Amino acid sequence: MPLFKCAQRHCQLTLRFGEPAVCPLFGHPLAAFEPPDGKLVVNFHTGCVAQRQQREFDAASFRLERFMPATQRGLFDLAMTGAGGPVVVTVKVLARFTMPPKRDWGPMNAAYSQLTAWTGTEQRSWMQEQQQSLDTVWNASHHVLLLTHPGGWTRRFSPVMRIEFVEDKSEAHIVADIEKAPPIDPNMFNCGGSRLDLAQIITGNPQAVSTAAMSSQSGRPVAMESSMLGHQIEGVTIQYNIVAHEYGHMIGLPDEYNSGGAIGGKDIKADAYAIHCQATDKLALKAGQVWHWNERTDSLMSTGNVVHARHLITVWEAVTYATERLTKPAMWSII
């Protein structure tokens, strides 16, 4: 009487006493088939472990909410299905539309003096521009997350970056103050003072909602002289995408144009950026990447618009968490 039987598609074999209980197709140990009631059948009919895992993975859906990466910065949601396709990353933003303070704006005084209060139409247009800008940079990237299962099957997943505007702070991952500004002068390196704080590290609360500052111009690619960015671009100017860069911070990435810093300040606030950067280095290596520091290049997290594989390290981490029941981190790579 057979001890094991492998009767799945592409794997036909009956094992007898004394033969190794190994799937001949994938080299995986055979596991006894368990019916829905959880009881082990007496005749030990089995299937190949790898094939069962593949079918289970393909049929599964995976979700994370308010995921904070190991870089200790940013929050986002993630949704994907095992059959392949997009990995949807969503950052929920509460936008607070503000006017600039009264001060001396130098050469831009006349332009600032002509600004009028935000209208509802302007606010809606601004929100639409943010997603459009993400589409032209993040969602035009060809980098994917690759699952290589030791059972001999693979799956490819394309990250799709989304920004969703919410009205309730309790739903938000980021609260952004959007300051109205005149059109940016291409001869001035002015990104509207865009930034995102490090509230999660400073407060010690992983779910703390960070505050961002952005400009009314952030959704519009800005023509900058390449010499002002510290690197040369063919055609002299570069269409710098502000919101795409800031979105990188929202999903947990640091800048590349400065150093990672050193821990040794007076308090956690002084050390926060260094903590963030050191954690980024560790996560990058875990994901098979190397982060870049002190470089002014065409990279998105430096002074350009190019998405590199390393920019997906926090998405890689989220995917390994979401699928940990069925995969191991070593099975995932960024290509």
Structure summary:
This protein is α/β, with parallel strands linked by helices and 335 residues long. It has helices at residues 49-59, 109-113, 120-137, 199-203, 226-229, 242-250, 268-286, 313-322; strands at 4-8, 11-15, 30-32, 45-48, 61-67, 76-81, 85-98, 145-148, 154-165, 174-179, 195-196, 210-215, 222-225, 237-240, 332-334. The chain has two domains: 4-58, no CATH class; 60-334, no CATH class.
Search tags:
single chain; 335 residues; alpha/beta; 2 domains; 9-stranded mixed sheet; 4-stranded mixed sheet; 15 strands; 25% strand
Structural features, described:
The structure is a single chain. This protein has helices spanning 49-59, 109-113, 120-137, 199-203, 226-229, 242-250, 268-286, 313-322, and strands at residues 4-8, 11-15, 30-32, 45-48, 61-67, 76-81, 85-98, 145-148, 154-165, 174-179, 195-196, 210-215, 222-225, 237-240, 332-334. It has 335 residues and is an alpha/beta fold. The chain has two domains: 4-58, no CATH class; 60-334, no CATH class.
Give a topology summary:
Elements lengths: L3 E5 L2 E5 L14 E3 L12 E4 H11 L1 E7 L8 E6 L3 E14 L10 H5 L6 H18 L7 E4 L5 E12 L8 E6 L15 E2 L2 H5 L6 E6 L6 E4 H4 L7 E4 L1 H9 L17 H19 L26 H10 L9 E3 L1
Parallel strand pairs: 1-4, 7-9, 7-10, 10-12
Antiparallel strand pairs: 1-2, 3-4, 5-6, 6-7, 8-9, 8-15, 11-12, 13-14
Would you count the extended β strands for me?
15
Radius of gyration: 25 Å
Tell me the span between the first and last alpha carbons. 48 Å
Q: Per DSSP, what share of the residues sits in E-state strands of 2 or more residues?
A: 25-35%
